[in-house]
Design goal:
mainly alpha
Length: 217
């Protein structure tokens, strides 16, 4: 080594040794840094895994919280609906009871009115009663499309009491028949009665023909 030192000089050799020592130290530091970095890199998957797990746990808890809040909200809404249903049911029962009472009263009034109409019919005379009953029977039976001869005879015998104004007597028949018929039945009966009164003379003549033939014999 003294030969080398003599070749380059003692000062120069010392500088080389110093630089060599510095490079050696830097190399060791670099190796330590690389090892440390490798250790940190090795830890990255574990850190990511922990972070992902924590995120999942946080999201799961957040989701569970939302579910609990929704369940609580649904429970409140269900309770509210149940209360409303109970109130509506109670109100319905109350209205049903009141309506039944009203309906019963109306039915009694209707029955009373019909009984009074029946009594008035009997008092007003047999011909009017027969005419009204004929119109009611015709209107109620679906098979009847026009008056039968029996219907006509019963009605005409009443209308003929005022031949100059059969429509006036027909009005009485309608008035007394109305309470016993539905709207549809009453409409059917009125239309047929109007047709009869509009051709009253011809109907009278048609009904009298058998009697005339019998008299000629």
């Amino acid at each position: 080594m003294s030969g080398v030192a003599n070749l380059f000089g003692k000062g120069k050799y010392a500088e080389i040794e110093k630089e060599n020592a510095r490079l050696t130290a830097e190399n060791k530091d670099m190796q330590l840094a690389v090892a440390k970095m490798e250790g940190q890199v090795a830890k990255i998957p574990m850190m990511v895994q922990r972070q992902v797990r924590q995120t999942i746990e946080d999201k799961t808890e957040e989701h569970l919280t939302e579910i609990r809040e929704l369940n609580a909200s649904h429970s409140r809404e269900l309770s509210s609906l149940q209360v409303r249903l109970q109130n509506l049911s109670a109100r319905y029962r109350e209205l049903e009871s009141n309506n039944r009472h009203i309906i019963d009263n109306l039915k009694r009034e209707k029955d009373t009115l019909l009984a009074q109409m029946e009594a008035m019919l009997r008092l007003l005379g047999e011909k009017l009663e027969k005419a009204v009953r004929a119109l009611i029977q015709f209107a109620r039976v679906l098979a009847y499309k026009t008056f039968t001869r029996e219907h006509k005879e019963a009605i005409v015998s009443w209308l003929a009491l005022d031949r100059d104004d059969p429509k006036s007597n027909a009005h009485f028949v309608k008035v007394f028949a109305r309470p016993f018929l539905t709207d549809k039945e009453f409409d059917k009966g009125c239309k047929e009665l109007d047709r009869l009164t509009s051709s009253f003379p011809a109907v009278m003549e048609d009904l009298e023909q058998p009697q005339r033939r019998g008299m000629r014999r």
